[in-house]
Design a protein that fits this description.
- The structure is a single chain.
- The protein has 251 residues and is an all-alpha fold.
- It folds into three domains: 3-74, Helix Hairpins (Orthogonal Bundle); 126-201, MazG-like (Helix Hairpins), CATH 1.10.287.1080; 205-249, no CATH class.
- It is 73% helix and 0% strand.
- It contains twelve helices and no strands.
- The protein has helices at 3-11, 17-21, 24-44, 47-70, 76-89, 92-95, 103-117, 134-146, 155-174, 178-198, 203-227, 237-249.
- It is extended and about 65 Å long.
- The two termini are 48 Å apart.
Length: 251
């Protein structure tokens, strides 16, 4: 039985009540969860887990396409046809004429073709969904603006902007102005995302790695305390500092 046939049965008259009840909106949390689980499998370098999670993610694509077909919007074969046509169109150096030798050159060509397909009256920044995680969205908006020359000349320029925003954050804190603190904190994060571009760092990935590192070290502290029959709540600031330094030395 094919996956499409399974989905037909699940959504059919004798199908599953839960599957039949789902809508594109109700499936959004599932789509996000499955995407994150794919990333987790990649991080774990676990091919078996990755195979399973990719299947779960594929199910979401088929699920949404099935609902769309019921509403006479589009079918799964149209999704695939549209994707194939786009890939061929945006890789002329592979499927038509022209040569591209570097990855960066291929990316520039892709973006140029993509821009030519858009409404000329549409904003350059319109292609970055507001639902994108904020740090990643800040990075992408800055990258798009940079393509038309709206950018700092070099890394030193953007790092100076980071320092400027940090000073303005300090000023907001000293003034005890919470609205200003929030605004300046946001400006600082935005500037850091732009600094990441110049330093060739993906800010979302960098923060994700740092978050995992923090979790790993904190869990080592917990383990050390359990071995000594002690609880986190019973630790002093000095003990926390010592345990943290010990955990840090292991990574």
């Amino acid at each position: 039985m094919t996956l499409l046939k399974v989905m037909d049965e699940l959504r059919g008259p004798k199908g599953c009540p839960w599957d039949k009840k789902q809508t594109p909106d109700s499936l959004v949390p599932c789509l996000l969860e499955e995407t994150y689980e794919v990333i987790a499998a990649i991080d774990a370098k676990d091919p078996k887990q990755l195979k399973e999670e990719l299947g779960d993610l594929l199910l979401q694509i088929v699920f949404h396409s099935r609902i769309a077909s019921e509403e006479n919007s589009f079918r799964i074969d149209e999704v695939l046809t549209h994707l194939i046509e786009k890939l061929v169109r945006r890789h002329p150096h592979v499927f038509a004429e022209g040569e591209v030798h570097e990855a960066e050159e291929a990316l520039r060509q892709w973006e140029q073709i993509k821009a030519a397909e858009k409404d000329p009256n549409e904003s350059l920044l319109a292609g970055v969904p507001v639902q994108t995680p904020a740090l990643a969205r800040a990075y992408r908006l800055g990258a798009k603006a940079s393509r038309v020359g709206f950018d700092w000349p070099d890394a030193q320029g953007v790092l100076a902007k980071v320092n400027e925003e940090l000073q303005e954050l300090h000023e907001g804190i000293r003034a005890e102005n919470q609205d200003a603190v929030e605004e300046e904190f946001g400006d600082l994060l935005f500037s850091l995302a732009q600094a990441a571009r110049f330093l060739k760092i993906n800010p979302e990935e960098a923060l994700r790695k740092s978050t995992l590192k923090f979790q790993r070290r904190f869990e080592r502290m917990e383990q050390k305390l359990r071995q000594g029959g002690k609880r986190l709540q019973d630790c002093t600031a000095e003990e926390f500092d010592r345990l943290w330094q010990e955990a840090k030395a292991l990574s």
